[in-house]
Design goal:
single chain, mainly alpha, two-stranded antiparallel sheet, 18 helices, globular
């Protein structure tokens, strides 16, 4: 009976999908926008030799560039117009959110509703342009200096004209991606910026999967190792899908109110607290901070003073900070846990939530409104954040450790899995919401037609 009900529900969903013209248009628009994004990732930056650039990029693998290159769909490796991707916008938005939680003026703007949010979005865009200019300038200068020290010249005509042109091109590419993401959000399906990041990650799946199975065919990678890794990825996807939707729902009670029939009735609702409130921000921040010294050293040239104590210490430090080393993995896990608590404290304010409940007459049964409610919310949030932080650390560190120990030629880390699964689940939920709204719309139309016939 259950399987039959599920099949009927699925058939109804397919039938509704075939009739939902607006939803189909939104999906096709989203696909078209993502195709434009992929085309742009192959448009090279003016003044760069792509063949020499490929050789230089192979020498910088293992740094923060690999992380940004994954999120940009290989655009950074090819040094395309959208090489910076949307990471400057992500960084700027995180900084503005933190500032809004800590600075009184920005906190007041946040409480003003739509006008305040529009002002904060404007500050985020200013911050995005500023970060693009800084990152683009250093990226252009790094290409010139790194190429010269390696005996190769990736830039055809190095100089200030190249740097200015590169900065203008990179700023324009990132801002165009933001505009494209907004169009997807308003006219397509899902969150535009998140879908662009996910498309960049998914675009590299075929290459790495083919490398994996090619290694199995040639015998360089054992078949049980490939099967075990695939099983681990499937288990991680299931765990991520389960935990990301997990919530601690607190019962909220409202005073009894008289209904139209004179019956006193109490309203109840729930306050959902996500198990992973911070999302994918902690892994991105932790990996960026850890890989930053390694990347700077690779661009500036590794210290050659190996005979001196300082040179030997620097070489040893860089060795243990390589992804997969036990010091790197330990610091990575601790960084994820720290940023998980920090960002959760930024995005969720127990005092503000308790005050809003008190103003609306709501309370948690057995807890006094006001400070006691805020303390209780903080207590519950701390306990579930401990579980969420451990979950994030395990999901992100385990693939790094396995790849390092086995030597698999893969980029598939926990952060990439988190982004892909989260965005996919969110997009599917929005598609289901559109189908449900379309089904309700048809029911309302039929009810109106029956009413007219009577």
């Amino acid at each position: 009976m259950a399987s039959r009900a599920d099949s009927i529900a699925s058939n109804m969903s397919l039938a509704n999908f075939s009739k939902a013209t607006e939803l189909r248009q939104r999906i096709w628009f989203t696909i078209g926008a993502l195709v434009v994004f992929r085309f742009l990732s192959f448009v090279p930056l003016p003044g760069v030799n792509p063949l020499i650039l490929e050789t230089l990029y192979d020498q910088t693998r293992g740094g923060i560039l690999d992380l940004f290159n994954t999120f940009s769909g290989g655009s950074l490796e090819r040094m395309s117009l959208i090489a910076l991707g949307v990471m400057p916008y992500i960084t700027a938005s995180i900084v503005v959110q933190m500032a809004a939680a800590l600075h009184p003026t920005l906190a007041a703007l946040k409480k003003e509703g739509a006008t305040g949010r529009q002002k904060l979005n404007q500050y985020t865009r200013y911050g995005t342009v500023f970060l693009c200019v800084i990152q683009g300038w250093f990226l252009a200068a790094g290409l010139e200096s790194f190429g010269a020290q390696s005996g190769l010249q990736a830039v055809v005509n190095p100089g200030y004209m190249f740097r200015v042109g590169a900065v203008i091109s990179l700023v324009g590419g990132t801002m165009f991606l933001l505009w494209l993401g907004e169009q997807i959000t308003s006219r397509g399906i899902g969150n535009g910026v998140s879908l662009i990041i996910m498309a960049g990650i998914v675009a590299q799946f075929p290459t790495f999967v083919s490398n994996l199975f090619e290694g199995g065919r040639t015998g360089s990678i054992a078949a049980p190792l490939i099967i075990g890794f695939c099983i681990m990825v499937v288990i991680l996807i299931v765990v991520i899908s389960f935990v990301e939707r997990a919530q601690r729902r607190l019962l909220i009670q409202y005073p009894k109110r008289a209904t139209q029939r004179g019956v006193m009735q109490a309203d109840r609702s729930h306050l959902p607290l996500k198990l992973n409130t911070a999302g994918v921000i902690p892994p991105i921040f932790a990996s960026s901070l850890l890989l930053l010294p390694l990347t700077i050293t690779q661009f500036a040239g590794a210290p050659t003073g190996g005979e001196s104590a300082a040179g030997g210490f620097a070489q040893t430090l860089l060795f243990y900070l390589q992804p997969g080393q036990w010091i790197y993995l330990t610091l990575y896990a601790l960084g994820i846990i720290f940023f998980c608590f920090f960002y959760t404290a930024v995005v969720f304010n127990p005092e503000e939530t308790a005050e809003n409940l008190k103003k609306n007459g709501g309370f948690i049964p057995g807890i006094r409104p006001g400070k006691r409610t805020a303390d209780y919310l903080e207590y519950v949030l701390t306990r579930i954040t401990v579980v969420g932080a451990i979950y994030l650390a395990v999901v992100c560190v385990l693939p790094e450790y396995v790849i390092r120990q086995t030597g698999l030629p893969l980029f598939l880390g926990g952060t990439s899995l988190l982004i892909v699964v989260n965005v996919t689940v969110d997009t599917i939920s929005q598609v289901q919401s559109h189908l449900l709204a379309h089904q309700y719309g048809d029911l309302i139309k039929k009810a109106k037609l029956k009413g007219r016939k009577r």
